[in-house]
Structures are given as structure tokens and as C-alpha cells.
Amino acid sequence: MTPPFGIPVELFAIFLALALLAGFVGLNGLVLVYLERKVAGHIQRRPGPFEVGPHGLLQPLADALKLVGKQLITPRGADKWLFWTAPIISFAPVFVLFLPIPFGPILTAMELDLGLLLILAFAGINVLALCLAGWSSENKWSLLGAARAVAQSVAYEIPLLLAVLAIAFQYGSLNLSTIVSGQGAWPWQWNIMVQPLAFFIYFVCALAETNRAPFDLPEAESELTAGFHTEYSGMGFGIFFLAEYANMIVVCSVATALFLGGWHGPVASGVWWFLAKVYLLLLVMMWFRWTYPRVRFDQLLNLSWKWLLPLALVNLIVTLVLVKL
Amino acid sequence: MTMFQEIRKAIQGLWSLLVGLKITGHAFFQKQSTVHYPRKTVPNLATYRGHIELVGREDAPGTPKCISCYKCAVGCPSNCISLSCPEDQPSAKTRAQVVPDPLGQDPAFRLTPFKVPPPEGVGAPSKRTPATFHLDYNYCSLCGLCVQNCPVDSLRFSEDVYLAGFTKQEFEYDLLTRLRGQAGNS
Question: Exposure of B2 by Cβ count < 10 A (0-12 exposed, 13-18 middle, 19+ buried)?
């Protein structure tokens, strides 16, 4: 194929994919902001956003415009370079995270044998961004938030990996598409039936890894004003926010692929089943957020080290024994 | 704690988490209690505690039941009520004028949290009707001590919910004029 305007086709395809991905993340961000506020409202028996557009549908757009229009302020004592690199570092891995996720039978951006590993590796970068953001802000709340983020991430990454590993050993593969195609259409053919404990551990750890309530200690509003992103204004904050929602989609997508049968469904399997399951998990996450109070930090670490880690280990060992038999 | 107790506690904790989810899940589908204000308003304001207003006599709705005892003005912690009675002095009085040293040496002006029994001769139309009765709502903390202290039930909370203004002066009320206006309307 002759490259148009001298641009190689591959390069063109990559840019198109990146643009589509950014669009997907942005669109989902808007939908999730709207859903979150609506869920919060309904749980508290109020309507949530209602005035901008029919049933407040345009509210997230208005919020986004407001964020984009705001002045970007750098605190006087801040390390300028790190301060503005942090939001970019937090959002950049998102583009990689979506690559190996099998949205549909053929709708996978990149078939990778180590897809799961790629996701887990790049998801860890987010905590670096939080750490840098908290450190460079020169604000005690930010620093405390960053310290919490690191400790929390270290504590919950291990049981999360162990839970995922149980599934990976069961299939002998780290390719998400392989794992999805190994599951059937009906709920009793999904991995959640074989590995309920692994799903439970994975979901709790996913909540903690994405800093969602009740594990939102790095940005605990009541204690740390806004934790690591206290000093960020306008789109600096907006990008952190978008990255958090993107990470939520990623962990829910991985949970769907690993435990809930991916794009398989009782009727008309396809990408819609995948999205429906992802959104169901996201709604459960929101439901948790507006139900549970934030845990204390010692409770958070105790939960991980004393319960989830041993349980995940036991689960892994039992799985290994059963696989070998 | 033994290991079994720990495990039992954890299971109980998990159960309580499910109960929490049930409660919020139930609330999610319940009817909302929000009233969409500019399009709808709250039907019943009976329990609303707005700024205070005077209560008129049964026989003459334009004249307050007030007997100018100054208990409201003296009891007001924000010093925002001032009234005058022609029987006493021509000028409007506030607590500072009635009792120079507020929480007073004079037992007659001590703050009483309970209902004060009406003084002698109440019931018959009093000559001690106030000539002026001003409320500076800017400083009012809506504590209700004036309403509680009034021996003749001449003060009550109004139901003015939809208050908004651009100047402080709009919230300085002449309650006598207001009462006359209300009597004229009804």
C-alpha cells in the first residue's frame, strides 16, 4: 500500500487507535461522572444533577467545560516539573491498559500472550504518579495522601496478583482472550463459580487499587482535604479524575474477562455483553462508595495483610493442587 | 481472641456489610424527598421557623397582644429586637437601654428558658401597647428565646421561607406595620 502524504499506514493506524481510545475513555468518563452523581443522589433519596439538560444529562459536559476553563495554578513551593508531570504519568498508562482487553470476539486492540501481565504491570505506574503529585505539591496533606497511596498500593497489589494468578494457572495462559474463550455463555460456566474467593479478593483489591471508597484514603476529603491532588486546579485535577475512572473501567474489564465470562452471554454474545457486565461492576463500585464509610488506615492494612493475603495464598495453593490432579 | 472468634467476627462483619448494601439499595428505589423548588414548593410550612412576627389580638387583629414588658428585647442574645412604649419613654428601647448590665442584677430581667406566667392584669386590653417594634433580622440567630419569653404569646415564628434581598436594610423589619398589613389582608 502506498502511504498517503508519505505517512506510513502503521503510524496512521496507531494514531487513529490512540484517538479512538482517548475518545472512549473521555466518553466513559462523562457517563461515569453522571452515573456516579445520579447513584449518589438516588441512594440519598434526591434526584442528583437535574437542571442542566433533561434529567441533568449535560451536567458532566458542563463540569468538563468548567474544568478546562479554569486557571492552572502551581503552588509557590512546588517542584514545577514533577508537579505537572504527575497527572500525565497518571493518565499515560491508560492507553496501554486498554490494549489487551478483549471487548468482543475480534474486538481486541492487540492480542498479547502476556496481556494480563501488561495490564498488571502498567496499572502499577498510577501509584508513582500519586506519589510524585503528593511529593511535589509541598503540602502536608498531599504528602500524607501520597504516603498512604504507596502503602495501600503495596499492600493490595499482592493479594490481587495472587487472586489473578489462580485463574492464570487454571488456564495456563496470561492471554485474556484465551481465558474468555475458555468460559461458557451461562453464568454457571463462568470462572466466578469455580473461583468465588478469588473474585471476592480481586474485587476488594481492585477497589483499593483504584482508591475507591471505602478505601479512598489517599484522597480522604474529611481528613486530607483532597489528599494527593489537593493543590491541583482545573485540568490537572481533571486528568487525575479521568485516570481514576479509566482505571476503574480497566479493573472492571479485567474482572469481567477473568471471572464473568467476558463477551459471552446467554443470547447474542458480543461486545454489548462485555460492556453490560463492566457497567454492572462499576455500578456495584458506586453502590459501595455511597454505602460504606471510609476505613481507618490500620484497618485497611490489617484487612490486606491479615485476611486477603492468607486467603489468596490458600486459594492459590488449593487451585494448584486441583490443577495438578 | 482466639482464631475462631476472629473468624466469627469477620463473618459477622461481612454480614453487616450486606445489610448496609440492602439498606442503601432499598433507598435507591424509594420515592425521592426532593421538591424541585422553582417549579414546585413545599406544601406545608407549619414547622418552619422564620423570622419572628407579632400576633394580633382576637378583637383587633391590627394591634399586637404585646404589653411592652421588654422581656423579648432583654432576652435577645443578639440584641436585635427594639421596641418602645409611649407609657415609658418616647424613644425605642433595646436591652442596653433597659438594663445597662445585661444578664442583669435586676431579677425581673433574668433570662428564663421556660414559659413565664403572664403578669397581673393580663387578659384585659392593655394600654401598654408598643408604639414601635423593630426587628433587625441580620443579627437574629433564630434561638427563639423571645418567643419563649413572651408572657402573652404575642410573638411567633413567621412562615416567610422565600427571603432574598440585596441590602441589609431589607431585613430590618417594622413588625407593627407588618402586623397591620397582615390584618388588612385577612
Answer: exposed
Which residue in the set B24, B30, B33 is minimally distant from A290, CB to CB? B24
Closest residue on chain B to A302 (Cα): B10
Where is B173: in which H helix or E strand?
strand B172-174
Work out the pLDDT band at B102, boundaries 50, 70, 90.
very low
| pLDDT tens string A41-96 | 999 999 888 888 888 889 989 988 998 888 888 888 888 888 888 888 888 888 88
CA of B10 vs chain A CAs: smallest distance (Å): 9
DSSP 3-state percent helix, strand, coil across chain B (nearest 5): 30, 10, 55
Rounded average pLDDT over A7-33: 83
Hey, are the CB atoms on B34 and A46 less than 8 Å from each other? yes
C-alpha cell at A23: 475518545
Among A35, A44, A303, the strongest candidate for a mutation testing the B interface, having the largest count of B CBs within 10 A, is A44
Does this complex have an ipTM over 0.85? no
The minimal CB distance from B25 to the residues A45, A287, A307 is found for: A287
C-alpha cell at position A145: 495522601
Mark yes or no for CB contact A292/B20 under 8 Å. yes
Task: Enter the DSSP assignment of A110.
Answer: -
Taking contacts as CB-CB distances below 8 angstroms, the residues of chain A near B29 are 42
The answer to whether the CB of B96 falls within 8 A of the CB of B79 is: yes
User: DSSP characters for A56-95?
Assistant: GTTHHHHHHHHHHHSPP---TTS-HHHHHHHHHHHHTHHH
B17 and A292 in contact by Cβ < 8 A?
Answer: yes
User: Residue B117: how many CB atoms within 10 A of its CB?
Assistant: 7
d(CA A155, CA B61): 73
d(CA A161, CA A175): 15
- The set of long-range contacts for B181-185, using a CB threshold of 8 Å and a minimum separation of 24, is B182/B53, B182/B56, B182/B61, B183/B56, B183/B61, B183/B62, B184/B62
